[in-house]
């Protein structure tokens, strides 16, 4: 098998007698084990009269098997032992995966294997779970991507399985005479065949042992020799092409999608011809489509290449975020796209050079691969096993053999007006119909033949259009630097009032990459709500201003981001360590230059206000959370307040603000990665030089509101669902209290889910979470329901929590031990890659943990926590009279207002 040069895992592909393709992976360094099984069945296989069946079956597999009849056994078992499990159902595939502490891997595999051999699919569980499916469907009713997807489904060839409704609900999955569970079983028996499945597993266990396990556990999955029939009908017939589609969004959105139909393009993967085409059309540097359309004031963003794809279709999309001007000029934008195409028609040597750039990057990416989260990686692998031959399971995503002219001509031949659909999404478009299920308003009409002919005749590019240049950032050699010191944690190289610089050379992951963080705290940024809003706007405008200039840097694997935090701005750069100093230097230069374009100011101000105002379309639980954090963090106002404040602000005020925000600042920086001490010193000199006009003496701490009494908020929401959030805040910053809250959350989360969602069927969105605000620990419990009011939800919640302490006392010593071990693994989880490690260092600095040992302190404290102590803590926290904040939704057609009620007891 082809693997990366820095990959020290052992791989062994094997096909079992029943046809199951398995990839065994031994990773001696892995702290966890994981498995993922992908089956070539998805919602395309749903019977026409049973839409949502594949998805329903996916849920049912978790709800009991012959040897483990209890619902949720795998979820319980994995969460008790430091892991988790999940699944998804796609168009043509469904996937199931879990991870767990190494010593429990075999047991978990045994539970998992029964999913695919003997699921119970009992009538009782089916009846209940149908409500969960229905709630999952309702949860997404207002979700624009679903709403737009449904329009797509209703405007294609109605005989193609893409036209089916994928999620399912109470209606499509209702009982017909007898319980639907019988049909689900038939569906399982027909489709869950070993010869349509792939399994990837990874563990420190030896390959030979892994093989013995898998053969004994998975050999009983049934198989037959039938090859799955290919989809025989095309996605689009000629009458579905050359169309104009209008869609009204739910949230504010102005978007143009120009879509070209292609057949299956899997055969191009060794050359990545389609992504190369997307790279050229989606380029953002000088002369590109993006740069030209942005200059005209028509667009805010452009991406190329996305779109649905499957075994007999691929949409090649140009997706464009429009300005108000752009909506009026959308036909001119389409004409510009066709005017750019002639540049691609006669590929010369320049194309080979551009292709080589992309290839170099992909090679660097392959050889400097960082480990991602095991569960994400393994689930991606089992899906890839359906698309690539055995020796390319791992490398398939990274292959780029050569610029293939035949592919290129073939691709260009598909980019024609007659093969195109145009989708315009805007609040003011004319609509004549609404979709099924999601009720999306839309209309569809023919594109005028005259205009199509005009488009077809465009043969010369517009004068300012140009192909990308060869990337200047790829010229420097990429090398790993010698290790200098063995220091285990970052060192503070500068410790002055107003300027701290922390540095650490990476000695663990050894990739030619690094991360640089710079926090700029400024009292101007938090003077009042308007200043906080302007800080957000500044970050957006800055990113917009520098986008074109640094696009080649981004392509060369360097990324940068200016964001806001409570109290100021954070600059974060990452990627290849070579060239990063130069990038930061140029970025700071732009920031201090402080000049912005008034047109872009007006555009971004409008966008940001709209974005904040559309917060009231978010799902109820999210709205309650945003109210919660606004109540407890004074520097984190609600979106509505921010929008109101920004609306009052003019360009002159903003310009004034841009100079003020950089006077009286405090700087904190972290450099971590493939750099030596002398590089750190170069960074320090550069920062000192760039910021020398700023007074660096600001001293301040982020304010927190602390709950001192029981508080209840009723939040008026315009949404059909109801919601409840209960938030407990620690009384002190003591480690012991942090640990008690973490542990309580860990113990309660599965049970809460089980009670509120599975047993009482209150809603799909149910959960608990350890949720600190700034450095103060906290825990949140939430539920959103289509059927019960917030007050009813609160009653259920109280019934659950009133007696919960007894559950803790009733835990056996073994259970208690395992719960602690499970949490301990989470706390002590090794940082998987350089990025995660950098993030942790940076978070420690933000929380003033200057010894970087919070993990150890938490672990030590957790070790000494007893069951009795946790039960006592639980009694105190879950007491009806305890200090907490309760947020309840209240339905309203009016604007959002908050009514604050405070009461001592309920
Ligand atoms: Zn689901």
Distance between the termini: 65 Å
CATH architecture label name of the largest domain = 2-Layer Sandwich
Q: Could you say which overall geometry the principal axes of the C-alpha atoms support?
A: globular
Strand content: 15-25%
How many structurally independent domains?
Answer: 4
Averaged pLDDT: 92
pLDDT < 50 stretches: 894-906
CATH topology of the largest domain: Cytochrome Bc1 Complex, Chain A, domain 1
Report the biggest beta sheet as strand number plus sense, adding barrel if it closes. 8 strands, mixed
CATH homologous superfamily heading of the largest domain: Metalloenzyme, LuxS/M16 peptidase-like
Radius of gyration, whole Å: 29 Å
* Beta-strand segment tally: 26
The CATH class of the largest domain is identified as: Alpha Beta
Protein model, in words:
This is Protease 3. Residues 366-645 form the Peptidase M16 middle/third domain. The chain is of the alpha+beta class. The chain has four domains: 10-218, Metalloenzyme, LuxS/M16 peptidase-like (Cytochrome Bc1 Complex, Chain A, domain 1); 238-347 and 403-464, Cytochrome Bc1 Complex, Chain A, domain 1; 491-690, Cytochrome Bc1 Complex, Chain A, domain 1 (2-Layer Sandwich), CATH 3.30.830; 711-902, Metalloenzyme, LuxS/M16 peptidase-like (Cytochrome Bc1 Complex, Chain A, domain 1, 2-Layer Sandwich). It contains 29 helices and 26 strands. The strands form four sheets. Strands 7, 8, 9, 10, 11, 12, 13 and 14 form an eight-stranded mixed beta sheet that branches. α1 packs across α4 (123-139). The N and C termini lie far apart (65 Å). Residues 894-906 have low confidence and may be disordered. Zinc ion binds at residues 55, 59, 136.
């Amino acid at each position: 098998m082809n693997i990366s040069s820095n990959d020290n895992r052992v791989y062994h592909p094997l096909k079992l007698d029943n046809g199951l393709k398995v990839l065994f992976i031994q990773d001696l360094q892995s702290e966890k084990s994981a498995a993922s099984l992908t089956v070539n069945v998805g919602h395309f296989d749903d019977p026409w009269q049973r839409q949502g069946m594949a998805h329903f079956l996916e849920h049912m597999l978790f709800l009991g098997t012959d040897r483990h009849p209890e619902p949720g056994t795998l979820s319980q078992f994995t969460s008790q032992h430091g892991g988790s499990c999940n699944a998804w159902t796609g168009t043509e595939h469904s996937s199931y995966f879990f991870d767990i502490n190494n010593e429990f891997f075999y047991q978990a595999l045994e539970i998992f294997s029964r999913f695919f051999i003997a699921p119970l699919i009992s009538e009782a569980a089916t009846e209940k779970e149908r409500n969960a499916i229905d709630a999952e469907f309702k949860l997404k009713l207002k979700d624009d991507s679903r709403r737009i997807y449904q329009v797509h489904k209703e405007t294609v060839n109605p005989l193609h399985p893409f036209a089916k409704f994928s999620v399912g609900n109470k209606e499509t999955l209702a009982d017909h005479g007898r319980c639907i569970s019988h049909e689900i079983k038939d569906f399982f028996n027909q489709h869950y065949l070993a010869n349509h499945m792939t399994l990837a597993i990874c563990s420190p266990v030896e390959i030979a042992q892994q093989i013995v396990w898998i053969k004994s556990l998975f050999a009983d999955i049934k198989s037959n020799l039938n090859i799955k029939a290919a989809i025989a009908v095309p996605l689009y017939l000629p009458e579905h092409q050359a169309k104009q589609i209008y869609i009204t969004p739910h949230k504010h959105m102005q978007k143009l999608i120009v879509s070209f139909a292609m057949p299956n393009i899997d055969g191009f993967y060794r050359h990545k011809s389609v992504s190369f085409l997307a790279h050229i059309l989606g380029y953002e540097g000088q002369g590109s489509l993006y740069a030209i359309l942005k200059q005209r004031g028509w667009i805010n963003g452009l991406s190329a290449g996305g779109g649905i794809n499957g075994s007999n279709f691929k949409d090649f999309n140009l997706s464009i975020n429009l300005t108000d001007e752009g909506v009026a000029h959308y036909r001119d934008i389409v004409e510009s796209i066709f005017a750019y195409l002639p540049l691609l028609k006669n590929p010369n040597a320049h194309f080979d050079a551009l292709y080589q750039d992309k290839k170099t990057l992909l090679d660097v990416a392959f050889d400097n691969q960082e480990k991602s989260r095991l569960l994400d990686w393994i689930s991606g692998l089992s899906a890839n096993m359906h698309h690539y031959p055995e020796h390319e399971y791992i490398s398939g995503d990274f292959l780029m053999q050569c610029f293939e002219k035949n592919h290129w001509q073939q691709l260009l031949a598909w980019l024609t007006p007659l093969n195109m659909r145009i989708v315009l999404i805007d609040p003011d478009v004319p609509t004549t119909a609404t979709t099924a299920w999601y009720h999306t308003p839309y209309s569809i009409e023919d594109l005028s033949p005259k205009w199509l002919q005009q488009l077809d005749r465009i043969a010369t590019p517009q004068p300012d259009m140009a192909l990308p240049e060869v990337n200047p950032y790829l010229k420097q050699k990429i090398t790993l630097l010698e290790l200098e010191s063995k220091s285990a944690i970052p060192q503070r190289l500068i410790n002055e009032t107003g300027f701290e610089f922390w540095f650490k050379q990476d000695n663990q992951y050894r990739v030619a990459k690094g991360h640089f963080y710079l926090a700029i705290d400024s009292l101007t940024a938090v003077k009042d709500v308007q200043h906080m809003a302007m800080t957000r706007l500044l970050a957006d405008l800055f990113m917009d201003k520098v986008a074109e200039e640094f696009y080649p840097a981004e392509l060369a694997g360097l990324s940068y981001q200016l964001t806001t935090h409570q109290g100021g701005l954070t600059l974060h750069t990452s990627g290849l360590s070579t060239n990063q100093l130069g990038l930061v230097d140029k970025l700071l230069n732009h920031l201090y230059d402080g000049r912005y374009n008034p047109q872009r100011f007006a555009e971004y101000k409008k966008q940001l206000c709209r974005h904040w105002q559309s917060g009231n379309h978010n799902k109820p639980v999210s709205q309650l959370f945003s109210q919660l954090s606004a109540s407890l963090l004074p520097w984190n106002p609600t979106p509505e307040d921010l929008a109101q404040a920004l609306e009052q602000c003019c360009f002159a005020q903003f310009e004034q603000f841009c100079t003020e925000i950089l006077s009286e600042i405090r700087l904190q920086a972290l450099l971590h990665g493939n750099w030596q001490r002398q590089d750190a010193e170069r960074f320090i000199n550069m920062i000192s030089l760039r910021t020398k006009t700023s007074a660096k003496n600001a001293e301040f701490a982020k304010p927190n509101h602390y709950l001192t009494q029981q508080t209840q908020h009723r939040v008026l929401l315009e949404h059909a669902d109801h919601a409840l959030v209960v938030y407990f805040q620690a009384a002190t910053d003591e480690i012991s209290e942090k640990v008690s809250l973490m542990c309580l959350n860990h113990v309660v989360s599965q049970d809460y889910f089980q009670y509120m969602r599975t047993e009482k069927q209150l809603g799909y969105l149910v959960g608990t979470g350890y949720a600190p605000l700034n450095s103060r620990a906290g825990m949140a419990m939430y539920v959103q329901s289509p059927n019960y009011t917030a007050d009813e939800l609160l009653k259920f919640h109280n019934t659950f929590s009133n007696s919960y302490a007894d559950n803790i006392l009733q835990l056996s010593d073994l259970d208690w031990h395992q719960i602690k071990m499970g949490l301990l693994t989470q706390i002590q989880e090794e940082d998987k890659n350089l990025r995660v490690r950098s993030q942790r260092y940076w978070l420690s600095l933000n929380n003033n943990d200057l010894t970087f040992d919070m993990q150890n302190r938490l672990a030590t404290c957790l070790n000494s926590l007893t069951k009795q102590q946790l039960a006592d803590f639980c009694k105190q926290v879950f007491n009806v009279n305890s200090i907490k904040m309760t947020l309840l939704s209240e339905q309203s057609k009016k604007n959002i207002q908050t009514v604050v009620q405070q009461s001592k007891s309920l």
